[in-house]
Write a structure and sequence with these properties.
Length: 307
Amino acid sequence: MRDDTSAMVQAILAHHAATFAGFGAEPAPKPTRQEAAYLAALQACSTLGFIAHDAECLAQAWLAQSLRTGTFQPEQWPDAPEDFGLQPVPHAQAFAPCPEHLGLYAVLPDADWVGRMARAGVPTVQLRFKSDNAAAIEREVHAAVRAVQGTGALLFINDHWRTAIQAGAYGIHLGQEDLDALAPDELQALRASGLRLGVSTHGYAEMVRADAVGPSYIAMGAVFPTTLKKMATAPQGVGRLGVYARLLRHYPQVAIGGIGAEQFAPVQATGVGSIAVVRALVNAPDPEATATHLMRLMEQNSQRASR
């Protein structure tokens, strides 16, 4: 950052020194306390490994925190929603609510898997059906809706929101790119449909973007390394997940990405109310038994945390 600043200073001097020749150099003004707080936070967050737009988001929040409290507090990690510009509660723009604790959240490749896990008692299931065939997509979405009937499972459809509305699904899950691609009238149509909306996030800037539409829940990840999809960001880890959960405390939260049974306890200790799994179920020798084990594990961890 300092090298970039020096280079910009030299570029200005190279272009304009002749015009203003004859004046001696003056000492540069010291940054104001506000500027110093922002620059210190920006440099610190970059050093801590946050990518550029997340470091900038954090630095702005740290500055807002300093202005709100009247002092720069290096020991106080920003986690007040108002310092990030999040919507006040209740949200002026919001999708229909969903349970605060969605429990075990199974992300599944087709309607048959959706039915199996719903009948096994998994409380929340997602159909992530990847296809460019419109007829196949419609068939799978409608089949998934039928598959959960009578089970009590909440069904979210990944991406295919128009078909999800037609089929009568419980909700839709969108990634950041899909959310950004929605025109204002499409977003309004989706909100007016009554479907619940879940949004994937991978850091602070995306959480602020997601909050602007008032989703029903926010997913945070990838927490650990995953081979299921290429991620633009490094695994977030449990430490970051904990501060994300504090910031988004007014939302139902789903942790996702490379989470196996051995990581359930530290993930739940952050306060998230749901854990999404893919390979832990789909690749299991006995998926139904594994689902039962993971749900029991989540319940045991919750009971220990409440003692």
